[in-house]
Write a structure and sequence with these properties.
The chain is mainly β.
Length: 230
């Protein structure tokens, strides 16, 4: 039996988080994308996804929780903001965790993911005390310094990773995937070191829409706990 679905994998962060999308493809189906290509629709498929439970209590209260991130991202108009108004969220989840820097310092790294048929979207928070202006040095050479609602931001690209395996044989292979576009945005206009990041990537090899990324950032970020207006 072959199965086919898309799920995101945790990326790496060095001042800014890199995003990897993992495409898991059943050996028989091959070129199909998304469960909708191989499974019949059910009545539940027509309903937007509900954020799944996450381990909120693993992070101190001063950090934004995965549930709060997921709730902010999994909004009813997300498909419209993405430019795919006929779609709906098929899965939504939040996860808590810590990242260990080279010197051994641990920083909180809560995040949330929402997957639609065409797009996947990730919202994450960082408390690494690295201003966005400084983080811009660590991302790809095509990064662009921007402003989002008056807050310092950097727009950059990352390559996703494709993983294929045959459910019958158990063999797996990896290769380059498509492009993810990310906006790293300071939580305050003063660029004090805390930041939120929104990343989008498609379930095919088509580059994501930057305008959609900015629309999501402008609507979602002001609703996240820890965002400072102005």
């Amino acid at each position: 039996m072959a199965d086919d679905f898309v799920e995101p994998e945790k990326g790496m962060r060095a001042g800014a988080q890199a995003v990897a999308a993992v495409v898991v493809v059943g050996g028989v189906v091959g070129g199909m994308w998304g469960l909708g290509g191989v499974l019949p629709k059910t009545t539940q498929d027509t309903k937007p996804a509900i954020c799944s439970a996450s381990t909120d209590n693993s992070l101190p209260a001063k950090y934004v929780s995965p549930t709060a991130l997921c709730t902010a991202l999994n909004r009813a108009d997300l498909p419209v903001l993405l430019g795919t108004p006929d779609e709906h969220a098929e899965s939504a989840s939040g996860s808590a965790g810590w990242m260990t820097l080279a010197g051994g310092t641990k920083i909180a790294s809560p995040e949330a993911d929402v997957d639609l048929r065409t797009y996947s979207v990730r919202l994450s928070a960082s408390y690494d005390d690295i201003p966005v202006a400084q983080a811009a040095r660590y991302v790809d050479s095509t990064s662009q310094v921007k402003k989002v609602l008056g807050h310092p931001a950097v727009l950059y690209s990352d390559r996703t990773v494709s993983i294929s395996f045959n459910l019958g044989g158990g063999d797996a292979s990896t290769g380059p995937g498509g492009i993810a576009r990310s906006l790293l945005v300071s939580t305050s206009a003063k660029d004090g070191g805390d930041s939120f990041e929104i990343s989008i990537w498609r379930q095919d090899d088509v580059p994501p829409d930057d305008e959609a990324l900015f629309r999501i950032a402008e609507e979602v970020l002001p609703t996240v706990p820890g965002w400072t207006a102005g």
